[in-house]
Amino acid sequence: MWQAPLSHAQARAIFADKAGAPDTAEVAIREYLNDFEEFAAAVNSGLVDDDYAYHIENVRVLNCYYGFEEVINHYALEDQERAARQKTELLASSDYYGELKRLAEKWKARKKLELDAEEEERRKRKALNRVL
Fold first, then answer.
1. CA angle 122, 126, 129 (to 5 degrees)
2. Looking at per-residue confidence, does 38 or 88 come out higher?
3. Measured in Å, how far apart are the chain's first and last C-alpha atoms?
4. Is 90:83 a contact under the CB 8 Å cutoff?
5. How far apart are CA 88 and CA 113, in angstroms?
6. What is the CA radius of gyration of the chain?
7. pLDDT at position 37, please?
8. Residues 6+ apart with CB under 8 A from 48
9. Is 46 left (phi over 0), alpha (psi -120 to 50) or beta?
10. Domain residues for 58?
11. Side-chain half-sphere exposure of 16, counting CA atoms within 13 A
12. 3 lies in some domain
């Protein structure tokens, strides 16, 4: 359905990249995630039609969010640790890629329903072919 997500070790390698900005892997990935966050916000707010966007971008959105979930979680954890060190409350804005997460979760459920329906249709055809 979608590509395999980054492993913990692969995510660590991204953060260990010491190339000068803007050539670091982390900068490239952050820009990539930012683009999808903006797209997801447009879909979630109704600026872009959900059905239209789903049919064009569902696989890419799912690959983006679930593929880089380890990286996204790293950013969130960093923010929590920073807030704990500074003894401050987390801001609402610390919901890293929250628009992307909401859209990916919604589209993942939709994709699963579609795949389940396709599988049911295949089983019905197979059973009908056996009868015939």
1. 140
2. 38
3. 32
4. yes
5. 42
6. 19
7. 97
8. 39, 42
9. left
10. 8-131
11. 6
12. no
Nearest to 66 by CA among 22, 112, 20, 24: 112
Whole-angstrom distance, CA of residue 109 vs CA of residue 65: 14
The angle at the Cα of 91, spanning 97 to 53, to the nearest 5 degrees, equals: 25
Q: Number of folded domains in the chain?
A: 1
pLDDT reading at 93 higher than 80: no
With tokens 């879909």, the residue in question is 43
Rounded CA separation 29/113 (Å): 30
- Compute the C-alpha angle 101/31/72, nearest 5°: 35
pLDDT, residue 89, reads 64
Question: Is residue 1 in some structural domain?
Answer: no
Give the helix, strand, coil percentages of the chain, each rounded to 5: 75, 0, 25
Please identify which residue in the block is written with the tokens 């953060």: 15
Q: Is the pLDDT of residue 6 over 90?
A: no
| Whole-angstrom distance, CA of residue 68 vs CA of residue 15 | 13
